[in-house]
Amino acid sequence: MKTSFSLNLLLRDNIKTLVPYSSARDEYKGEASILLDANENAFGSPYSKNYNRYPDPLQHRVKEKLHHIKGVPIENIFLGNGSDEAIDILFRAFCEPGRDNVILVPPTYGMYEVSANINNVAYKKVVLTADYQLDLDRIAEAIDPYTKMIFICSPNNPTGNSIHRQDIETILVNFDGIVVVDEAYINFSRQPSFTQDLAEFPNLVILQTLSKAWGLAALRLGMAFAGKEIIEVFNKIKPPYNINQATQDIVLEALEGVDIVNEWIKEVVEEREKLAVALQTLPQVAHVTPSDANFILVKLEEPRALYNFLVSNGIIVRDRSKVALCEGCLRFTIGTPEENITLLENIRKFYDQSL
Ligand SMILES: *Cc1c(COP(=O)(O)O)cnc(C)c1O
Q1: Is the C-beta atom of 295 inside 6 A of ligand 1?
Q2: Contact 208, 188 (CB under 8 A)
């Protein structure tokens, strides 16, 4: 348990004093039967369902359900239009453009850097070690009085491995700024989530998403879990109606599907191990990084030519071969069993041809 964390010292001044937008629906209490406050169309929508009323700004019903699934209190949950919105709000809350900085630990998810650039916030890159773990000494050296956040993705994209929990805890305890732990792939991991540790780490912000294991990427629903005061800051900054009604309705129904999602996760993990084993038998495959995610990073011969061959056969994978520490690597998302077989057949065909 650390003692030196102070939200007030971290927040930008304009956010500290910000008076948030007050929506029509925020300004009354009690049962409403006639709503003439928000300039909506009182007749309905030209659609089979009515969407004429503004949605719940704080998505109470969705959060209630997530509380039951995740075991996180409602006051510790923020919902965003994808995780991307949560990442952007973090920069706008904590980083004064042109003054503050954040630490990124590449190779990792590209959005942290893009969001920093959009917000004109500097970043220091402390590359992972050769086995894709945190370089704690160099991170400690990189921290200065203007370092507001450190982004850690675990399981990491694009490498697939989990970051050692002990190392993340070391940073949580010793760094006074915000530690963002992006758990987009946590459902596929052997490691536990940090969601049960929020009380212990006041500077922890966990990101999760419905875009991966939950199969709802098109609905755009990202989650942030953090202490109550941080969540209140998020809610102050976000656009008032950031999660639309259609998304709230569909997500509420889809969250009933825990069982099917858990079955898919099991199947993806099985397929992941099968594909990894099959690839390792190929002499052209140098290394498959052990993965806790729904993809594998594979170091192999002629990555770019293989990538082009796969594309010409209608199979799209991710070329990471020019990324530092991922040299020579392609990233394969785990598909259905049939898709994985087709991928493997095409990889074999490519190398047989180039013999
Ligand atoms: C896919 C992914 C996300 C998800 O982003 P959404 O905006 O919620 O779809 C977040 N973080 C990482 C590391 C990812 O790979």
Answers
A1: no
A2: no
The reported pLDDT for the residue numbered 2 is 58
Contact 354, 322 (CB under 8 A): no
- Nearest residue (CA) to ligand 1, atom 15: 157
Atom of ligand 1 nearest to the CA of 81: 7
**∠ Cα 82 86 92 (to 5°):** 140
| 80 in contact with ligand 1, CB cutoff 6 A | no
Shortest-distance Cα residue to atom 5 of ligand 1 = 83
Query: How would you list the strands of the sheet with 222-226, edge to edge?
Result: 77-80, 222-226, 204-209, 178-182, 147-153, 101-104, 122-125
Domains along the chain with CATH numbers: 7-25+55-256 (3.40.640.10), 259-353 (3.90.1150.10)
Cα(31) to centroid(ligand 1), Å: 39
Q: Where are the alpha helices (DSSP H) in 151-227?
A: 165-174
Tens of pLDDT, residues 20-71: 998 877 777 778 889 999 999 999 999 999 999 999 999 999 999 999 999 9
CA nearest ligand 1 atom 3, residue: 184
Cβ count within 10 A of residue 305: 11
Query: Which is the closest atom of ligand 1 to the Cα of 221?
Result: 8
